[in-house]
Amino acid sequence: MSAESKSQQAYRFIRERIDDGRYVPGYRLVLGSIARELDVSVVPVREAIRRLEAENLVTFERNVGAQVALIQETEYLHTMQTLALVEGSATALSAPLLTPDHLSRARAINERMRRTLDDFEPHRFTELNLEFHSVLFEECPNPHILDLVHRGWNRMKLLRDSSFSFVPGRALESVGEHDRILDLIEAGAEPLDIELAARRHRTATLDAVLAYQSEHKSPATDVPDPESSEISA
Amino acid sequence: MSAESKSQQAYRFIRERIDDGRYVPGYRLVLGSIARELDVSVVPVREAIRRLEAENLVTFERNVGAQVALIQETEYLHTMQTLALVEGSATALSAPLLTPDHLSRARAINERMRRTLDDFEPHRFTELNLEFHSVLFEECPNPHILDLVHRGWNRMKLLRDSSFSFVPGRALESVGEHDRILDLIEAGAEPLDIELAARRHRTATLDAVLAYQSEHKSPATDVPDPESSEISA
DNA sequence: AGCCGACAGATCGTATATCATTTCAGATAT
DNA sequence: ATATCTGAAATGATATACGATCTGTCGGCT
To answer: How far apart are CA B154 and CA B149, in angstroms?
Structure first.
């Protein structure tokens, strides 16, 4: 009894690989290859790719094929701007519903983040950052907004280049802002104040990233060669 | 030379019917029937439905089939809350980019809205309302946020019951708020003030709708009978 | 050498066919 | 009369097959 349809299976298969970076942006998704790898026909794979396309994780061009979405800088800006908006709102909506338990868990995660700064672990820092906000959003009463947050995060993950998500000088400030947001929530601040604080938290990170980028004079995003990231059979 | 793939054709076909109400919420989308009607096979139709599913316009259950999405009251609340958020942001982002031409066009539409109130034309009013905001969003620099606005509108359209989108006593206020928003933009107000004004504009409408609903004691949303809304061949 | 067109391989797009699951009507038993 | 069973019809899910389109390469021409 397969509890999961083959199209769902294909969806998870591809999605997993995009998330963990095995399929980098620009990697070409060939229907036939994926179908063979999963031992299914191309029809369910097409469906899976269509769904990923609707989620903006892959682009699909007629008679050409699909590839993991490439993020351009301007695209990145728009995504982060939207993310700031929905994260701010999600935080404000959740705030009045958070229990002391939530808050203490969030503080604990934040402490761990602080510790990852001593050892230099950008990847772990980023992970914990998502965990931190996930705790805050656990009680979010509006699933739509939560869904938008997740979409934003997924798009962010398409940037494997860590310089897009971690700026050394910025990390400490970020941890401090987390604490301040928790303070606001604990103090029962106005929802709008919480919303704007959370929003600024994201936009400040964005600004830091952009400053860091231009400072380090990174050349334009290059398209990775699909072949070079082929999965070894 | 068909510039449009059959799956896109099927998508537009269904989408059109959902938008204009021929397929009411709850209407069952039978793959085979739609395929025959379009004289294509079921494969492209499935793809089209998957895409609509990703847009939350239809629900698709394994081995059971697809139907036009049903909106529950709580769902409606979440949608409107999200819409208030993204419309507010879209308005604020657009504001500094609007030319006098945009503003005068918006005012003209708003005047027409005022006129529809004399004659009782709720449907026309709702149409013009979308037009009004569309003009404001023409220059929106963030396509993601604009996309979210459109998704919100589409979901709103699933509520064919006009009492969900038009409250007689509220309409006049709404027109007044439009003018006030335009005034703010024209005066070069702070983006945040514009954002909050636009947000309140939507939430106020929502509140009015809910008050109107409970006042008129509408029974719980009922699931329309798919058969009763069959298209006459 | 560089440009252009034809060919071949790869890949996508869709129709058709078959299998699986659900649904529902009608029969049967309690 | 109600509940349950059963089997056929409807519908969805997937595999396979074939045609269409694209892409890149090879050879000829200027």
So the answer is: 9
What's the token pair of residue A124?
């772990």
B152 CB and strand C closer than 7 A: no
SS3 label, residue B207: helix
The rounded distance, in Å, linking the Cα atoms of B136 and B91 is: 7
Q: Confirm if B64 and B103 have CB atoms less than 8 A apart.
A: no
pLDDT tens sequence across B80-108: 999 999 999 999 999 999 999 999 999 99
Return the closest-CA partner of residue A194 out of A177, A171, A170, A207: A177
CB-based contact B195:B91 (threshold 8 Å): yes
Residue with tokens 């006030």: B180
**And the tokens for B152?**
């919100």
Confidence (pLDDT) at A160? 66
Nearest chain B residue to A90 by CA: give it. B82
Length B223 CA → D2 C1' (Å): 27
Contact B199, B207 (CB under 8 A): no
**Closest by alpha carbon to B178, among B212, B133, B226?**
B133
Answer whether any strand D atom is within 7 A of the Cβ of B32.
yes
Report residue A95 as tokens: 């705030």
Q: Is residue A27 within 8 Å of A226, Cβ to Cβ?
A: yes
Domains of chain B: 6-70 (1.10.10.10), 73-215 (1.20.120.530)
What's the token pair of residue B156?
């709103």
Q: How far is the CA of A228 from the C1' of D23 (A)?
A: 19
Report chain A residues whose CB lies below 8 A from the CB of B55.
Answer: 54
pTM over 0.80? The answer is yes
Which chain B residues have a beta carbon less than 8 Å from that of A78?
A: 142-145
User: What ipTM does this complex have?
Assistant: 0.85
| Dist CA A161 CA A208 (whole Å) | 15
Whether residue B21 contacts residue B165, with contact meaning beta carbons closer than 8 Å, is answered with no
Please state the rounded mean pLDDT for residues A153-164: 79
Encoded tokens for A16: 């997993």
**A142 → closest Cβ in B62, B81, B148:** B81
